[in-house]
Amino acid sequence: MSPRVDEQNQQIRDRRKQQLLAAGAKVFGERGYAGTKISDIVGEAELSHGLIYHYFSSKEDIYIELAKTAFMTSYETIRRAVQSSGSPYERLKAMTEGIFATPRESGHFFLIALQTNTSKTVPEEALAISREYSAKTLDLLKDLFQEGQKLGEFIQEDPMGQALMYSSLLNGVVFTRLTYPSLERFPQIGQILRMFTDTRFVKE
After folding, report:
1. What is the pLDDT at residue 54?
2. What CATH number does residue 118 fall under?
3. Which end of the chain lies in a sparser environment, N or C, as judged by fewer CB atoms within 10 Å?
4. Number of folded domains in the chain?
5. Residue 39: inside a domain, yes or no?
6. What angle do CA 134, 136, 140 make, to 5 degrees?
């Protein structure tokens, strides 16, 4: 078999795997882990039932890969923003705008992350992934708030508490946007930033 044919076959395999993962994200997001069957994912992907086992051994494997994608993507988004140039306030503003500009279709990954942290039925490995990346994310945010406090940009509150508050606020807003998809101009970024900004530090 020629290298070109090998490459084409690999591309087909990659597309099918992504097709299955996209279907899994939608079904798990809508039905939860316990309420999802392999047949549901196959049906959503519109592929043959036997094909899925060329890529995944179980629905648990699919869920774990999706959970890893959800938490890693969130972490990387925040890491890039926190470690970018600009003042702490500017980085917090850019990060908040970027997160809320995420397409609504990614809401399935948010729901997977949410159920990983709240459901007792999800695989333990998915929960371990959540703990790892959530801790790393909070450490990044804590460092950002700490830096901003030293420069007088942010209010003087416990930096880890502020990191938790910001993270909780983001989760709440994303959940609200998924619940009420017709909402427009929500959230107002300025409202969020004012919760963390020192009143003596004025930014338009």
Report:
1. 86
2. 1.10.357.10
3. C
4. 1
5. no
6. 115
| Residue 18 region by backbone torsions, left for phi larger than 0, else alpha for psi between -120 and 50, else beta | alpha
- CA 190 to mean position of chain CA atoms: 22
Dump pLDDT digits (tens) for 59-111. 999 999 999 999 999 999 999 999 999 999 999 999 998 888 776 667 889 99
State residue 40's pLDDT score: 93
* Mean pLDDT, rounded, for 12-31: 89
Backbone angles phi, psi at 183, to 5 degrees: -60, 135
Residue 8 forms part of a structural domain? no
Q: Cα separation of 25 and 65, whole Å?
A: 10
What pLDDT sits at residue 175?
A: 85
The answer, yes or no, to whether the previous bond of 3 is cis (omega within 30 of 0) is no
CA–CA dist 61, 21 (Å, integer): 10
Q: Model confidence over 143-201: pLDDT tens digits? A: 999 999 999 999 999 999 999 999 999 888 888 888 887 777 777 888 899 999 988 77
CB atoms within 10 A of CB 173: 16
